[in-house]
Amino acid sequence: MSVFTDVPLAQKLEGSLLKTYKQDDHPNKMFLAYKVCMTSQGQPWVSSVVLKTRMQIAQDPSLTYEYTPVMGMKSFIQASLNLLFGKDSQVIMENRAGGVHTVGDSGAFQLGAQFLKTWRRDSQIVYIISSQKEPHGLVFQDMGFTVYEHTFWDSTRLCLDPSMLLNVVEQAPHGCIFVIGNIGNCKLTQGQWTQLMVLMKSKQIFPFFDIPYQGLATGDLDEDARFLQYFVSRGFEFFGSQSLSKNFGIYDEGVGILVVVALSNELLLCVLSQLMDFAWALWLNPPTTGARIITSVLCNPAMQGEWKQSLEGAVENIMMTKETGHKEKLRLLGAPGSWDHITEQKGSHSYLGLNPQQVEYLVKKKHICIPKNGRINFTCINSYNIDYITESITEAVLFTKDSEK
Amino acid sequence: MSVFTDVPLAQKLEGSLLKTYKQDDHPNKMFLAYKVCMTSQGQPWVSSVVLKTRMQIAQDPSLTYEYTPVMGMKSFIQASLNLLFGKDSQVIMENRAGGVHTVGDSGAFQLGAQFLKTWRRDSQIVYIISSQKEPHGLVFQDMGFTVYEHTFWDSTRLCLDPSMLLNVVEQAPHGCIFVIGNIGNCKLTQGQWTQLMVLMKSKQIFPFFDIPYQGLATGDLDEDARFLQYFVSRGFEFFGSQSLSKNFGIYDEGVGILVVVALSNELLLCVLSQLMDFAWALWLNPPTTGARIITSVLCNPAMQGEWKQSLEGAVENIMMTKETGHKEKLRLLGAPGSWDHITEQKGSHSYLGLNPQQVEYLVKKKHICIPKNGRINFTCINSYNIDYITESITEAVLFTKDSEK
């Protein structure tokens, strides 16, 4: 008689789309939903500085490989915070921004959620944008939080709509947690920013920022983190998950930071000490290879310069794929409608602007795997598959136009 | 008004001894409780193959650094299981031993405890040996398990006593979880092994093995894992935390495995699928650098041979430190009593065999930081500090003898 008799096979939450793709044996099958930035050769993008740095580290005889403290690598945390807020920013100078080195961004959400579960018992409600529900929303859900999904994508007007965001905040209950991802694409006016923050402040909504790839949205590191300054200057306290895996191209090292901003250094130290207790039980010591690579690059001006250039290059490639590779091809093929919404969205992941019927057509008839909301990773498109993809999209749009008649 | 007003400074559980040591400004202060094997130069021990392998990996252009699956690196898991059970062992051939690649051994305990919390609700009691209470016992405790500490160290007879172990098992309640660490030092006879397993089987006690440094106890990898065979052959199902950080000397990579043995492949797959769900929320993807280094070594016979030699060398050094460095010096200094118990215990960490008063004397008067139970890391002793340490121990023993009068 087995101890495990009652244990059923788990319904795997993750990668259901990738699973569909893998099980498909059609020769033209394609997967446009990889999480990471891909190169034109269909490989995960890696910043050119990373290879060099990896070699330097391997050759460095002065390094010891002893356990890191529970908090993680201090120099890594400091360098990452400087990148986010600016070395001379007030919040850094006042010692009220800190962080815990975590195992990837999932680790940061796990850690933050454990803290909020324990120390904000009166508000266990989380709002999260649909595209972030998996995996981050589920971390909260598994822990007993009530998780509400929402979206700012207006599928009729084909744009990200700030007023949809404001509506959600208006309806959200007092004291809830708001996970805020790449809000830059939402193009809030100064007035809307003010309105958003006044609303959040009055309702004591706690922001939990997700900064998955600073620099890979606009190519400008400061620009991509600017919205944080707004919240800092308005006196918000918040958490943030800062991942540096994607913007360095070290996906498999599980390197992240849970960023904490508090009103004072004293408060910050209390929060960090509690977080360390949780981290202690979760993994005791975070892994260091990724953190070492990042710190080496960030602390060396020449290397940092090269890294920034590589980010700019990656973002140029994304925009080129969207502009000439995709939008232009669709126009030439006579795909009905404007495709400006594709280039109006920054970053690798953007809404194609297709309706559910069109998405289904691509998945079922053309074996192109894309999520139901039609938000794809544009860097999965390259010279080898662009023709098939744009032709299929054109077909999907025309097909569904015909079937509407 | 801060969100964090009610958050107190956490009482850090870990490293209280290390903290005492760091705060001590006495010139002769010493710390004999490091977790890891130290070299004669006072540095954490690193197997000579690791540096080479690290370089080879950094130079390998064929490697991609994409996210690993939630389960972790398959080749790493397989190589580690082969190391533990033997490539041709029945349990491997029958596909009923598996594992999840975790973030260090703490991650393995976290993952295993989460599973047991969910799937063995009727028995939330854990027995653990005192020296493992921190950190592993606390992981269970934090999760709501009732944790009982015990010890097999007979402080009068100065030996590890199997009958103390058997007594604990006899008194333990039906269905509890038994964390079993380096049991090799306990020197059970064949009859006692049988008795132990019959007892555990009849009480449906679930074993959770801790294999923190296979090969670093006796210098023989198979010997150090032999006790697992006993449990396998008796038809036990169990979990095991297998850490390969210490026996490779890659402490900061957070590399571990939660090993699962089930009665059938079908049961195993169910358990692994549930564990993956937990891992998914905890860290999503485990870090790979450490796993890559280990796999490269284990899958290359020449490298594996070199690694085994380095383990043998490390163990020889440990025994030499204990024998000629420590026991012999104490004899020459005329420290009363026999010190044979030091060499009778295998591995780097062993009981000094001092009473609480003697330990206190060393800590307070001589500034030698050692745990209350007197279990020290013998590799912290080297030619630079041996004289001071043995003289201090002799003094402590004589002092407490005098004060007894």
TrEMBL record, chains A, B:
Cellular compartments annotated: Cytoplasm
Keywords: Aminotransferase, Cytoplasm, Pyridoxal phosphate, Transferase
Cofactor or coenzyme needed: pyridoxal 5'-phosphate
All copies of domain Aminotransferase class I/classII large, residue ranges: 40-393
Family that this chain belongs to: Belongs to the class-I pyridoxal-phosphate-dependent aminotransferase family.
Transferase listed as a keyword: yes
Name recorded for this polypeptide: Putative aspartate aminotransferase, cytoplasmic 2
Biological-process GO terms, alphabetical: aspartate biosynthetic process
Species assigned in the record: Lipotes vexillifer
InterPro entries recorded: Aminotransferase_I/II_large, Asp_trans, PyrdxlP-dep_Trfase, PyrdxlP-dep_Trfase_major, PyrdxlP-dep_Trfase_small
Keyword Thylakoid: no
Subunit structure: Homodimer.
Predominant location category: cytoplasm
Signal peptide segment: none
